[in-house]
Design a protein that fits this description.
This protein has 770 residues and is an alpha+beta fold. Helix content is 60%, strand content 13%. The protein has a six-stranded antiparallel sheet with strand order 2-1-4-5-3-6, covered by helices on one side. Helix 4 runs antiparallel to helix 7, helix 22 packs parallel to helix 25 and helix 23 packs antiparallel against helix 25. The longest helix is centred in the last third of the chain and has 51 residues. The protein is elongated and about 120 Å long.
Length: 770
């Protein structure tokens, strides 16, 4: 029979593990449901004492996080409707705005269906964030219609005039959002695939919201939307408050327009000061999530037998069995390939939050991160055991070994690679930035080398082929027959009994037959020596390479750890050797570079679109002035809440680049309309137009903020990803709205002289052409 190379146990009992992966393009949750259904059927036919159970379910977190996103979606819609009621004081108006949500969201579902997308984290994130955005167009149109109705116009006239007046601003705002997401849709790599779905989701929702706002919203307003004085004391108080805010804003704006350069300089200084906050933000690919599951890699000394490794795993299982937080655990001694008998893997599933019990040491329920630290500490206390805990939520979108910090050291000589990797590992560990440093360079595997002595072998008539066949047959084993049992045919393998002691002497005593039929001891014709060797050999890019990986220490930055690894590599490695980021570290670097490129390209596209819409090179610049303040607010909010700059918070930044331009567009567009109506003085036009647009600006900004509030306050599964994204949106919107209301009018006033020059040049060109 073949040698036992792997042992598996589940909850301490012998087991056979079966891993199931979905095929590409199939639904993971649907596959899991079918597997569960099939398991229930098989359980009925199992003999007594045999159990069938799920040890590790990756779809459980998917179900829970999707449920959490759905809850966030509903809460965002409810909070957004309350904002509309607060500002408009009419349930009919609130209902009208809410009607824009199903039109946009359901329409987006149709586009996702025909595009072949799935309901994954990114599409659901797009839908949840779209709630606060798709109502913006409806709010802009509705508020303007209500304003015209408050002038005394009938419903139909107010709907026509109000919608016509705001159409340009609504189109400019929506198309500028699409301009931001357009470059994101063409990002490369695995990250690009997910961002493509996010960008398509957001673009579809925003475009549908524009169509709905310019068609269905005015029609509904012409039929049943009411507006007038609020009847209740609370309502009149709100109305008084809103008018008071508008009056205070006009007074402050008047003072700011008297000193535009000072206001602009103050805005620049605020942005410059906030830019320094980026230095203190932790930067990582993905935030660690409490998914209720993690993995531990166990290693015993190189050369350990399977029996010895298994004995150490039994000590590991004693610790696991005593932990009340664990729902199930599964161990595989020898790994899944069975090639390295001194290693193994432990899969752990945690109980749901609230069911894990109170830890006596911490006096509270342990999170996944807490239990990972306890597991790492306790398992490494076991003699001859090296345990490396791996958070599966940090695997990201890489195809490497799954560590957030992963790199390879490449060079010509194995011995030198081993020395340099060990030196880099020690320095990196001393930095305190990483834990669980792992490497695939293992020296110490005992290797017995049989070196034939050709002169002695020839003198005794022994061929080199005979020596090789004898060693292979008696040490490696040879098939000498077959037998049948239970309808199956098995090989009969002949070999020497495995013994740990005197292995070299036993091989020397092996007999080989010479060409005269005589038996000669192998020690007479060959030299047998035992020396340590490499357990495995790896190459990357056609070069010898040692791969190293590590987890991020709690509270530390992935970017900082990667920079430290790169710096240490330059200090340690001589010419001819180099350190190359791989796996999750490489994905992090590439994704951040792609996102920054997408942001810059999005700005250029947005400027060109706004220039074509406003027919001016000046006004687009005025509109885009709000963008730096949104970044300032996002960075400060992330720093204040101790959140990191990661993939999800970058999504929030991209979203901000699109939505904060709406406020500027509303101010610039209405100021242009007031000037076209005959107000030649730019300052007076600003003082007349900006307070009028204060209410829709506050409505859209607060609607976006409260739409992101449920995600920012999330405590359920996947909250670790939702929170930084929502906080960046909330901080950016609030900060940019406050500064936009004052800085943009000042910039408009300062740039109006360039606008006059531009107009004069245009007239000269027309005259010359005539």
């Amino acid at each position: 029979l073949a040698d036992v190379r792997r042992i598996s146990r589940a909850m301490g009992k012998p087991a056979v593990g079966l891993g199931i992966r979905k095929q590409r393009g199939s639904n993971a949750v649907a596959v899991a449901d079918q597997v569960m259904k099939r398991m229930d059927e098989l359980k009925k036919s199992l003999p007594n004492g045999v159990q069938l159970a799920v040890n590790f379910d990756g779809t459980k977190f998917i179900r829970e996080s999707v449920h959490e996103l759905n809850f966030t979606l509903v809460m965002s819609a409810i909070l957004t409707s309350l904002v509309c009621w607060f500002f408009l004081g009419s349930w009919s108006s609130t209902f009208n705005v809410l009607m824009s949500i199903p039109t946009s969201i359901v329409g987006t579902f149709l586009i996702l269906y025909f595009a072949g997308f799935t309901l994954n984290t990114f599409t659901l994130l797009g839908l949840s964030l779209a709630i606060g955005i798709v109502v913006d167009d409806a709010i802009m149109v509705l508020e303007n219609i209500i304003r015209h109705k408050e002038m005394g116009k009938d419903k139909r006239t107010a709907a026509l005039d109000g919608a016509k007046e705001i159409t340009f601003a609504a189109m400019a705002a929506t198309i500028s959002i699409v301009a931001i997401f357009l470059p994101v849709a063409f990002m490369d790599g695995v990250i690009g695939r997910f961002f493509f779905q996010f960008a398509v989701t957001m673009t579809a929702a925003v475009l549908l919201s524009l169509v709905e706002a310019l068609t269905l919203t005015p029609m509904r307003c012409a039929q049943f939307v009411e507006a007038g004085e609020r009847s209740t004391k609370f309502g009149r108080g709100i109305e008084t408050f809103i008018h008071g805010v508008a009056a205070a804003y006009r007074r402050l704006l008047d003072k700011c327009l008297a000193h535009p350069k000072t206001v602009i300089l103050g805005g620049v200084l605020v942005f410059a000061a906030s830019a320094f906050s980026v230095k203190y933000l932790n930067k990582e690919m993905l935030p660690a999530e409490d998914q209720g599951r993690f993995m531990v890699r166990i290693q015993t000394p190189v050369g350990s037998s399977l029996a010895y490794t298994d004995s150490k795993f039994k000590e590991v299982e004693k610790f696991l069995a005593a932990r009340p937080e664990l729902a199930r655990y599964f161990i595989s001694v020898g790994g899944f390939g069975g090639g390295e008998v001194n290693t193994g893997i432990v899969f752990l599933m945690l109980k749901a939050k609230g069911q894990r019990g109170i830890d006596p040491a911490k006096k509270r329920e342990l999170s996944q991160m807490d239990l990972m630290e306890v597991t790492r500490k306790e398992l490494n206390k076991i003699p001859d055991v090296k345990a490396r805990v791996q958070d599966l939520s940090m695997r990201g979108f890489s195809a490497g070994r799954g560590f957030p910090v992963e790199f390879s050291i490449q060079g010509p000589e194995w011995e030198k690679l081993g020395e340099y990797s060990e030196a880099i590992g020690k320095k990196l560990e001393a930095s305190g930035l990483v834990t669980d440093i792992d490497t695939d360079y293992f020296v110490g595997m005992p290797e017995i080398q049989v070196v034939p002595n050709r002169e002695k072998a020839a003198a005794r008539g022994v061929s080199i082929a005979t020596i090789g066949q004898t060693v292979n047959a008696l040490i490696g084993g040879t098939v000498v027959g077959k037998y049948e049992k239970g309808g199956h045919r098995y090989d009969i393998r002949l070999k020497l009994l495995a013994e740990e002691e005197n292995r070299t002497k036993r091989i020397e005593q092996l007999k080989v037959r010479n060409n005269r039929g005589e038996l000669v001891s192998l020690g007479e014709v060959a030299t047998i020596k035992e020396k340590p060797s490499l357990l495995s050999i790896a190459r990357q890019n056609r070069q010898r390479a040692v791969t190293m990986g590590a987890n991020i220490a709690r509270g530390k930055s992935q970017q900082e750890a990667m920079d430290a690894a790169t710096r240490i590599g330059k200090e340690v490695l001589p010419d001819g050797y180099r350190l190359v980021l791989t796996g999750g570290a490489q994905s992090f670097k590439e994704s951040m570079q792609s996102l920054i490129f997408a942001l810059v390209l999005g700005l250029l596209v947005a400027y060109m679109i706004l220039a074509s819409q406003f027919n001016s090179f000046v006004h687009p610049f005025t509109v885009l002035v709000a963008l730096p303040f949104s970044l300032s607010g996002a960075f400060l909010a992330l720093l204040a809440t101790n959140q990191s700059l990661n993939l999800y918070s970058m999504i929030g930044l991209i979203l901000l680049m699109g939505i904060v331009k709406k406020n500027s567009i509303l101010l610039v567009d209405h100021t242009n309309q007031v000037r076209d109506e005959g107000t030649s003085n730019v300052r007076q036009a600003l003082l007349k137009a900006c307070p009028v647009r204060l209410r829709p600006i506050l409505m859209t900004s607060i609607a976006t903020t409260v739409g992101a509030l449920p995600a920012a306050l999330a405590i359920g599964p996947g909250a670790e990803s939702l929170i930084p994204m929502a906080i960046s949106v909330i901080g950016g919107v609030i900060f940019s709205t406050v500064l936009t209301l004052f800085v943009v009018p000042c910039v408009y006033l300062m740039l109006s002289r360039w606008e006059r020059r531009e107009a004069a040049a245009h007239q000269d060109h027309i005259a010359a052409a005539a």
